[in-house]
Amino acid sequence: MRTIKLVCLLLCTSYLCAQSPYVLPGTLTDEIADRWEILYDFDHNFFSTQRNRARKDINWLAHCLNSQDFRNAKSINISNLDGYDINYILNDNAEFDLESYYSEIKTSKTKEKVYDSTGVFYYLEKKEENIEGTQFNEKKPILKYFYKSSANFFEIHNDNFDFIVNPILNLRYGNAFDDANVIFQNTRGVEMRGLIDKNIYFYTSLLENQRGFNNYINQRIDRDWTIPGQGFYKPFQSTVLDNLNGYDYLNAQAYVGINATKSVAIEFGHGNHFIGNGVRSLFLSNYGHNYFYLKFNTRIWKFHYQNLFAELAPIASAQNPGDKVLPKKYMANHYLSFRPNKNLEFGLFEAVVFSRENTFEFQYLNPVILYRTAEQFLDSPDNVLIGLNGKWNIKNRFQLYSQLILDEFNLGMLKEGNGWWANKYGLQIGAKAINLFGLDHLDAQVEYNLVRPYTYAHRDSLVDFPSVSTASYSHHNQPLAHPLGAGFRELLINVSYRPSKRLFVTSRVITSTFGQNPDGKNFGGNILLVSGSREMDFNNEIGQGINTKMLSLNLDVSYQIAHNYFIDLNFLYRKSDADLDALDIETKYIGGGFRVNIGQVRLDY
Q1: How many domains does the chain have?
Q2: Is-contact 35 89, C-beta < 8 A?
Q3: Looking at residues 529-540, what average pLDDT do you find?
Q4: Using one digit for the tens of pLDDT, what is the confidence trace for 483-500?
Q5: Better-scored residue on pLDDT, 223 or 129
Q6: pLDDT of the residue at 135
Q7: What is the mean pLDDT of the chain?
Q8: How many CB atoms lie within 10 A of CB 580?
Q9: Is residue 601 part of a domain?
Q10: What is the DSSP letter of 131?
Q11: Closest CA to 166 of 153, 148, 184
Q12: Which of 169, 349, 408, 443 counts the most CB atoms within 10 A of its CB?
């Protein structure tokens, strides 16, 4: 029996390098993986900080938990809800050939290769019994071809090709107090993903949207000339209802990748990325619009090294009149994470945005040089940021995480406490707790974020838009990191409870303090503005300008009626109290919706 356990542990801790299509933050699959990484002892290098998590990795975790020998060896008891989630993950990632995972495991010829009901095989002397709820949910196809499994609308699987197609739908309707307009969303689309020869992977999604937003989002759209997370848009007015108006826009995401070697994957596409363990990221978040990128992922031993090269836009489409191509700027960043053991992970982040229009600096293609060094070689004025990340899982119940981002920094000036404008940095501290008070799937998260004024901004300006920075850490007028930009502090408390397999309840409280700019002024909160237009060199502090305090209370209730089919109810109270009364804004919203194969995107900042 000891040999059997050893073989099973080898199967479940074997190192995975190959990349695959990934899940996005905020989806149910991502949330399940986040819990499991804290709750269970996975010895292989599952790097949770790179939040565009590969489906193949998450599927691997599910198969580990589906192994009775793994659970026995680790003294793991699986709850009924986690058993349901194992089944959910296995169904959601049916394109992976398990035999190819285990091909490198050397086992005794005396062991028999046996399969369980989910298709997992082990070299065991007898078949192990699965826990309740981990059987594949097979069903009779619709018209022979559609929904052969509960997870996918259409799928093809053979020896050298896997192809999955799913519809995307997000229909929402609601009303806000003191707002005559309907708050609505009408999103229809399709996503496709697949594998070619088990080595090339691809993904594409196309979404058509009409949407009306709450008042505080409309205020942001008017300020920034852009919809959060989107690109080109045009006004929308219903031909049936006068109070049904908002915006019409398309959104597309697509990438193709190849596992060039056992340790290196190359990906080329259009999308965004997230680095960190928090609700927010001070390094790189998925708040902004998709961008064109080339990515290298290298996974060796206890290291994961990600290189990302991206083409960005310094302004929004709405600011670019006529049939003219948007001006371009470029970014290069790399993130090196190290996992010395199963509970600790450390990361070093560095990014540079080029301080010149429509020009890529080829020296930044060097994947193993510090960008600050390359910047000095060039004698360039580029915008370089450096960051440190840390994560610690404690006793399979808690996680502590933190980020520190440095834009510019002078320790002597900091000690003097004079509020020097160029001491530009940000700090994140957070904690997660799993199964609070011993109650299954009662989870909580507390997070504090602080970013000094003028962080992420830069000095040089566009030729045609002299008030706009060439090298700010932004894309399409949207921050690449935290949605609030700079000059803020924020406290976020998130509590989620899952009383049954299909019912999800999430409550979130957010308080923040930030500064807004009077007309024609720059107090450091808006990272798009040229830092040379700052109001003062010293005595800068968080919330300067028009000091604003915000409170947001959210309650979301979702019920999964079928695999990735959800009915939602949403409640929001938000109040923003500014020193200038004209900028005060209050929102009381209640609404609901129906969504298919898409996570909830919470616009709560």
Answers
A1: 1
A2: no
A3: 92
A4: 999 999 999 999 999 999
A5: 223
A6: 40
A7: 86
A8: 12
A9: no
A10: P
A11: 153
A12: 349
pLDDT digits (tens, 9 = 90+) for 414-427: 888 888 998 999 99
Alpha-carbon span 41 to 593, nearest angstrom: 37
Are 600 and 494 in contact by the 8 Å Cβ rule? The answer is no
Alpha carbons 11 and 97: distance in angstroms, whole number: 14
Q: Where are the beta strands (DSSP E) in 368-487?
A: 383-394, 398-408, 424-433, 442-451, 474-475, 478-479
Token pair for 370 = 């510090």
3-state secondary structure of 124: strand
Percent of the chain predicted with pLDDT > 70:
87
The pLDDT, as a whole number, for residue 519 is: 85
Q: What average pLDDT does range 524-552 have in this prediction?
A: 94
Percent of the chain with pLDDT over 90: 60
The residues, any chain, with a CB within 8 Å of residue 360's CB and separated by 6 or more, are: 330, 354
CATH number at residue 442: 2.40.160.10
- pTM (2 d.p.): 0.89
CA contacts within 13 A on the Cβ side of 13: 18
Close Cβ partners of 473 (under 8 Å, ≥ 6 residues apart): 351, 353, 383, 385, 456, 457, 458, 479, 480, 481, 527
Distance CA 149, CA 156 (A): 11
Residue 290 belongs to a domain: yes
Q: What is the pLDDT of residue 25?
A: 76
CA distance 375 to 439: 52
Q: Which amino acid is at 48?
A: S
CA angle 560, 20, 171 (to 5 degrees): 30
C-alpha 19/C-alpha 297 separation (Å) is 8
Expressed as residue numbers, the domain containing 448 is 2-596
Is 209 within a domain?
yes
CA proximity to 425, closest of 401, 408, 447, 402: 408
603 lies in some domain: no
Q: Is the pLDDT of residue 13 over 60?
A: no
Looking at the DSSP assignment, which residues form a beta bridge with residue 275?
50, 284
Question: Angle at which helices 80-92 and 28-39 pack, to 10 degrees?
Answer: 130
Q: Which of 67, 56, 20, 48 is nearest to 432 (CA)?
A: 48
Residue 240 burial by Cβ neighbours in a 10 Å radius (0-12, 13-18, 19+): exposed
